[in-house]
Design a protein that fits this description.
The complex is a heterodimer of chains A (645) and B (207). With 645 residues, chain A is of the alpha/beta class. Chain A is 46% helix and 10% strand. Chain B is built from eight helices and eight strands, in the order E-H-H-E-E-H-E-E-H-E-E-H-H-E-H-H. The chains are: A alpha/beta (645), B alpha+beta (207).
């Protein structure tokens, strides 16, 4: 095992596995995301402030934030309009990504209902029935396939232009959906809101920054209560609703004596059949023939989260690990679907024997082998891909294998259903614990890795400070992987929590940090928050809840942040979004929104300080609910220490 | 003598040097916080367009020696820094008379409010060669920000030499590629006559 202690590399990641592989990258001159970030520096200030516009050919334009140069684009758009338009398009890109993922699941679900797929079945019939009832579909005495077909058709309508309100908006508390209606931001059609955002941000359409941002919220809601939620719900129906399961995490999950195949991306459609294919006796025999003792599947990013939640498949790492996992020299194949897969993985793979296999026709990579995914031949394609990995084992150079560190155990698999079941079938015990003050509140720590922040530092530090202060943390995406690696997601980690949370978690045998899944699964947080609000007869914005994205990087994260805030949950970002070129936009998002949707954004790069922002917010909400509270301002705010960021 | 050397043919007009310069001369030196400062910081380098499409020139103080601005300053506000030979402005002595700007061969001096102790006051605002940065062996913010190496920092003669070597290589590459053409002499008298009339025609066209 390699243990590297280098001041320079320790600034890039808090984890030994990453540092060890970064040392190898330095030794062997392999370029990584950190090198490319350094080469880009300093990054364009106009773009970083959101002040550049490339939307038309009268431009490109930029507004000088220091007041000396141009204050308007050629069309006349000022800083406020340009920043709002750019933010609107970012939200649309993020919402489109989640929603197109949701549509892909929906299409396979419909084809499965029509008997046109292989390797897929409806695994959670109870969830199918419950969903059908939400959509007003008759289920009594109906064949399951018919119910599924009707539900699929109804959900397809959510993507279109005929509806005035998405089907799953009914899950929000009435007071919340009425507020959306009043503001004119009820999401109507998933594709429609995205298309309308692109329309509005064309030159000469929506020239009012407030109006653009309101539609930004509507667009994000079409993701949170639409595309992403459909992705989560139907993934549960097709692949099973997650139940708590023990698993392992970090690069130590790779096995020196086995064929290692990493499943990377976001969509569980293909990876689920690959799990079946990897158990194929013929392929296992072929692996033995090649000298391997078996086939070891590992997850990366959110495809990894989907598999870990449902099948306990070990997790190799989050976003910033994707290049480093190849540098172990022990990875035969990286199978990718889409989203957050760096184009550079094929370059790193050239330095080793690793085969990169792309599978989605909408996501091709030069330098990768493309095996087109077809749900009609799901299992067959899964086997072909696994065979690719097994064949590559012959090319492995054992002298190049460097698997750093030992894996860390973690518990995954907390769906809303499994949380409620752990509580004894009702959210009441959780509500009671919050009322009594044993648990002060709950926070979703979500989002990506960003090389601008030492990998996982934001996630782990913020989460630790929250649980120490009796705040239950739910995590998804890269934040979940980060906390897993830090050992904060096993039941024994309850001892890291404050006395109240420790007692509750110990009694239930659960960790103080609950893995709610992939980034589309942030909708589980919405569902849980809505259920708690309905249980108490209040709005989501009244609850002692918050969201945080300490290391976000992607457009999807912006869409998530927007729908979380539009749903009434205060959200702290750890990386500055490209909005600071407009004081009006900043003021609206960080202040004015509170009076509109009952929640707002904050930006705080220092996780020690963001923990205090969140704690103050939660105590203020407790006070407003008439629960025991600590005077928010008495929670001491640490001085800004840039070395900590 | 170290300087920021300009290679205008490489400038794409992105104005990132202006942004980086303004941030470097803000109080916070942070790109987000700088936008909330009062008075706002101002860049001391300016990118202005040429006549041809997509051409531009990043213009800044050349730190002349002798420096007309320094010679003409009535209050002695403009002075030469002993370490790096940079032309600087003592804000407390500047009376914003603009004489320095009038005589500047490059129009590189602007006037903006700056804080120097008390309330903000409009004073001569010009490139200080990023004296703080170069003292700690960092390169000036504008050259650091430039993505195309239109602004490069280094020893002046060394940078000139780099250009000279580049040009020598270009000239020689062109000369070598002409050689085979030049060496094909006509083999017959008829050939020489044809060459002569063709050359006369070319010469006639050229004049």
């Amino acid at each position: 095992m390699i243990r590297l202690r280098s001041d320079e590399l320790s600034g890039l990641s808090i984890n030994e596995d990453a540092r060890s592989m970064l040392a190898r990258a330095r030794e062997e001159g392999i370029e990584t995301v950190w090198d490319r970030l350094a080469a880009q520096g300093p990054q364009c200030g106009y773009c970083a402030m959101g002040l550049s516009c490339r939307n038309c050919a009268m431009g490109p334009c930029r507004v000088d934030p220091f007041g000396e140069g141009p204050q308007k684009g050629v069309c006349g758009a000022d800083a406020d309009v340009i920043v709002a338009r750019n933010l609107g398009r970012t939200i649309a890109a993020g919402a489109a990504s989640h929603s197109d993922h949701g549509r892909d699941i929906l299409e396979v679900f419909l084809k499965t209902a029509q008997g046109e797929t292989t390797g897929y079945e409806i695994r959670d019939q109870a969830k199918l029935t419950a969903l059908a009832m939400e959509y007003g579909i008759e289920t009594d005495g109906q064949a399951m396939q018919d119910v599924a077909r009707e539900l699929g058709d109804a959900m397809m309508e959510d993507f279109g232009s005929r509806k005035q309100c998405l089907g799953l908006v009914g899950r929000a508390p009435e007071v919340r959906s009425e507020l959306w209606e009043k503001l004119g931001i009820t999401p109507r059609g998933i594709d429609r809101e995205n298309v309308e955002m692109l329309h509005r941000t064309h030159m000469g359409v929506d020239n009012d920054y407030v109006n653009i941002l309101l539609h930004g919220l509507r667009t994000s809601l079409s993701d949170g209560w639409g595309g992403s939620m459909i992705a989560t719900e139907l993934s549960d129906v097709l692949f099973g609703t997650p139940q708590p399961v023990m698993s392992q995490v970090n690069l130590g999950v790779l096995k020196a004596d086995q064929v290692n195949i990493a499943l990377h991306g976001h969509n569980p459609l293909l990876s689920d059949v690959i799990v079946q294919a990897a158990q194929d006796p013929e392929l296992v025999a072929l692996a033995r023939e090649k000298g391997a003792s078996g086939i070891n599947l590992v997850g990366l990013c959110c495809t990894g989260n989907e598999l870990q939640m449902r099948k306990g498949i070990p997790m190799a790492g989050n976003h910033l690990i994707q290049e480093l996992v190849i540098m172990t020299g022990a990875l035969e194949a990286m199978v990718v679907d889409y989203q957050c897969i760096m184009p550079s993985v094929t370059d790193v793979a050239k330095c080793f024997h690793t085969q990169v296999v792309s599978t989605a026709d909408k996501a091709k990579f030069s330098g990768a082998t493309h095996i087109s995914f077809d749900p009609g031949r799901g299992l067959e394609i899964g086997k072909e891909i696994v065979r690719h990995g097994v064949e590559a084992f012959s090319n492995r150079n054992p002298e190049r294998v460097r698997i750093p560190d030992e894996p860390v155990p973690m518990m995954a698999g907390f769906s809303v259903e499994s949380i409620v079941s752990a509580l004894g079938g009702t959210p009441e015990p959780l509500v009671e614990a919050i009322k009594e003050g044993k648990i002060r509140g709950a926070v979703g720590v979500v989002g990506c890795n960003n090389p601008k922040i030492p990998q996982d530092h934001g996630h782990v530090t913020l989460t630790r400070r929250l649980i120490e202060n009796d705040i239950l943390v739910v995590v998804t995406g890269c934040a979940a992987v980060a906390n897993g690696k830090a050992g904060q997601m096993v039941p024994e980690a309850a001892s890291l929590a404050g006395p109240g949370l420790n007692a509750v978690c110990s009694a239930l045998g659960i960790p103080p940090v609950l893995h709610l899944g992939s980034c589309v699964d942030n909708t589980r947080i919405l569902v849980l928050a809505a259920a708690l609000a309905k249980h108490l007869g209040v709005d989501i914005s009244d609850l002692p809840l918050a969201g945080a994205a300490p290391e976000w990087y992607s457009e999807k994260a912006v869409a998530i942040g927007a729908y979380v805030v539009a749903s009434g949950i205060y959200t702290v970002l750890g990386v500055q979004p490209a909005i600071f070129g407009s004081k009006k936009v900043v003021n609206l998002l960080a202040d004015g929104l509170e009076g509109v949707v009952g929640a707002k954004f904050a930006v705080e790069p220092d996780p020690e300080r963001s923990a205090v922002l969140v704690r103050r917010h939660i105590e203020a909400k407790r006070q407003a609910l008439g629960l025991s509270f600590v005077e928010p301002e008495t929670i001491e705010m640490p001085e800004l220490d840039l070395a900590r960021v | 003598m170290r300087t920021v050397f300009v290679r205008p043919e490489r400038c794409i007009g992105c104005r990132q040097c202006e942004f980086a310069c303004a941030v470097e001369h803000s109080r916070s030196r942070d790109p987000v916080l700088a936008l909330f400062e009062d008075p706002l910081p101002h860049p001391r380098i300016h990118v202005d367009p040429g006549h041809a499409f997509n051409t531009s020139f990043p213009n800044k103080c050349r730190h002349c020696n002798p420096a007309p601005c320094m010679e003409v300053c009535p209050t002695g506000a403009v002075y030469r820094d002993a370490d790096e030979g940079l032309i600087m402005v003592r804000l407390d002595k500047c009376i914003a008379c603009a004489m320095c700007a009038i005589v500047c061969p490059f129009d590189a001096v602007t006037f903006h409010p700056q804080v120097n102790g008390g309330a903000p006051r409009v004073v001569a605002t010009k490139c200080d060669g990023c004296a703080d940065r170069v003292r700690r062996e960092a390169i000036p913010a504008c050259a650091d920000a430039c993505k195309t190496d239109a602004l490069v920092y280094g020893e002046l003669n060394q940078l000139v030499k780099e250009g000279r070597v580049r040009e020598a290589q270009v000239v020689l590459a062109a000369a070598v590629s002409l050689e085979p053409m030049a060496s094909t002499a006509p083999e017959t008298v008829t050939g020489w006559r044809e060459w002569g009339s063709a050359a006369t025609e070319v010469a006639g066209r050229a004049s």
